Amino acid sequence: MAGETASQFLPILYLFGFGVVAGISSVMLSRLLSQRRRYNPIKFLPMECGQIPTGEGRSHFMMQYYSYILMFVVFDVMLIFLYAWAVTFTSVPKEATLPMMGFLGIMFAAMGYALFLAGRKGIW
Amino acid sequence: MGALNPDFRFGNFVGSIVQLVLFILAFVTLLVLPIIFFVLFFVPLPVVDGQVLTPYLFFSMMVDPSRTIPVIQFLIHTDLFRAAVFPGFAFAALIAASTIFLERKLLAKMQLRVGPLYAGKIEGIFQLLADGLKLISKEIIVPSGADKVIFWLAPIMFVSTSAAVVALIPVAPGWVAADVDVGLIAVFAILGFFPLIILLFSWASNSKYPFIGGLRALHQMVAFEIPFLLSALPAVIFAGSLNLSNIALSQNLFWNILVMPVNAFVFFISSLAELERVPFDLPEAESEIVAGWLTETSGMIFGLIQLGNYLKLYALAGLFVLLFLGGWYGPQIFPPELIPGASTSDVSLLRLVALEGLYNPVTINSIFWFTVKTFVVILLMLITRGINPRIRIDILLHTGWYKMIVLTFINLFVVLTLIYGGILGPGGLISVK
């Protein structure tokens, strides 16, 4: 298999550039075509179903998600190891799967405990 | 219909048209033709068919149109063509437009809507036009207190990031814009930008509903990212490669969905969650939080985000086909020659019509089957939208974290058992390669 070169990834940037060009041109076309009516301060208020908005738009509120985000960080790293193992699966001996299973077992135990903790109230 | 202007004179009308035509002619002669000749004479042109493409060769093509075929052949094998037209942007935009059309029609049938069924003479085709005109002619309102730079930039980033995902999707052997060795990981990496863009946009709107919607989008995408990535793992084991073309090529004997139906199901569900489609459209739940993170969008900003969504839909449906539905494999239905005997005939027009040298039955067949399968997957996603209610956010998170991950691991162990039991894989009863 050929080595990775940066130029392999260039078409992704081309497509990204096409997206940027299409986006900017359509927004500019829209600015040219669309009618802009008189300035009206109520028009530019944040949408709150017809009421005068109260309070901050960017407020703080609790979503109770911290434990899941912690698990996400752990699992995202684990996935990279799993993919590295999967790519070389056919070229490594069968015994190489055993440590992987051990790794999965440890991760599963940790995940079970984390999910158990995530379900409990009053500690987050 | 407006009445005619009282001082309307037909002579003046014809005169103005003649004037316009003369102006265009003068413009072409004085400016456009010199530019064309400048380009033809001074810019190094590609070598076509052993000859450099000179203006004389160019004029001889006007006499014999079949001589343009080598030029076209040269052009379609350049990187830029692949990125811009065929497996890239234009193709994906076409599929996105037809998906919108299909979705409007299907939902109109299911929910008894009128417009998409009857607007325009042919099957409500004008509904697309009307939608586009409406979006482009609406005023874009930036709410007061919004972060203007991010507010304008985020939708453009949304479209271009979706287009970048499309670059990695192969449609036929060798027909891919970016043939990257780590294609699958690259797709997941680019998809990882979307929660960030959505959160930035919702923060920039300076409004409460978009902020709630943006946080919901973030949580949903994070919860379904793990099963999404895990469900593609057995396909990588079979292919022994992360290159999407190789993954598709490894399914020449049987489709992966036969061995890993659970993973295909999990992948489908997770891609629905990734796309924020019903039943996972909590970030845009219009009956709870107005329109979620899209509340403050108007006009073309909304249009760009929708375009990005449909490009992403095509990319994920294509990824599903490549990973589980056998990629581009299907029965050969195209004939080996478009017009039998055209290659030996002397009539140049016949050779042009037969696309001699361009027409490759295997590639055309691959593209056909890939498109058909992609549309089947897209149709499944659309039907899911039509027949399902929205689920609650705690059920969504519970499904993502507790059930989907376990399901993918069960299927992974089944695949491992099949390989070590000597049924599949190299040296097994059914050898993959």
Description:
- The complex is a heterodimer of chains A (124) and B (433).
- Chain A has 124 residues and is mostly helical.
- Chain A has one domain.
- Chain A is 56% helix and 0% strand.
- Chain A has helices spanning 10-33, 66-87, 97-119.
- In chain A, α2 runs antiparallel to α3 (97-119).
- Chain A is flat.
- The model of chain A has no long low-confidence stretch (mean pLDDT 79).
- Chain B has 433 residues and is mostly helical.
- Chain B has a domain at 143-331 and 343-420.
- Chain B has 19 helices and two strands.
- Chain B has helices spanning 10-42, 55-63, 68-76, 79-84, 89-111, 115-118, 126-137, 148-166, 183-191, 194-204, 208-230, 233-239, 244-249, 256-259, 261-275, 300-323, 348-353, 361-387, 393-420; strands at residues 47-48, 51-52.
- Chain B has a two-stranded antiparallel sheet.
- In chain B, α11 (208-230) packs antiparallel against α15 and α15 (261-275) packs antiparallel against α16 (300-323).
- The longest helix of chain B is centred in the N-terminal third of the chain and has 33 residues, at 10-42.
- The model of chain B has no long low-confidence stretch (mean pLDDT 83).
- At the A-B interface, α1, α2 and α3 of A face α4, α7, α8, α9 and α11 of B.
